[in-house]
Amino acid sequence: MPALRALLEDAGFTDVRTYLQSGNVVLRSDAQPERVAHECERLLAGELGVEVAVVARTAAELAAVVRKNPLAAVAGDPKRYQVTFLGSRLPAATLKKLEAAAAAEERFVIAGRELYAWHPSGVARSRLWTALAGKGLGVVATSRNWTTVEALHELARS
Asked: Domain segments of the chain: what residues?
């Protein structure tokens, strides 16, 4: 993570902080989130040889994700509660595939460009989680458990 922080700082981003060894970054920039994501992808590929899609949210957008928390009444274990950050809205056909993949006890809610998913039996055997974590969504996406979402929100607030 030190190399990642240095790379982003050298590119002109400020207040660059990482969360654990996860690749999650909180930084300051005057650029729009889409521009930040594109620049981070370019830097990661060009300087570190890492080809990865990046999803960016503003501090206000991340605060809204935490505030919405549509499954708070049922999601009791933050490690089994995931938020998938989408680069754009999901295609209707993908939504139908997710509905078919969800087990009876699982719940998911799409709110804008986020998909909140509750996996009460865990993610290891969840067909829904497998669909969310795979590349078949038809959009750029990345998922984080609720503990990580709250930690990133706190980093963005400080």
From this structure: 2-48, 66-157
Q: Percent of the chain beyond pLDDT 70?
A: 100
Here the tokens at position 140 are 């750029």
CATH class of 66-157: alpha beta
Q: What are 44's two structure tokens?
A: 């990661």
Tokens representing 72 are 């708070």
- pTM assigned to the model: 0.92
Using CA atoms, how far residue 142 sits from 11, 71, 74, 104, 132, in Å, is 23, 19, 22, 24, 8
Residues with Cβ within 8 Å of residue 117, at least 6 apart in sequence: 71, 81, 82, 83, 84, 106, 107, 108, 128, 129, 132, 143
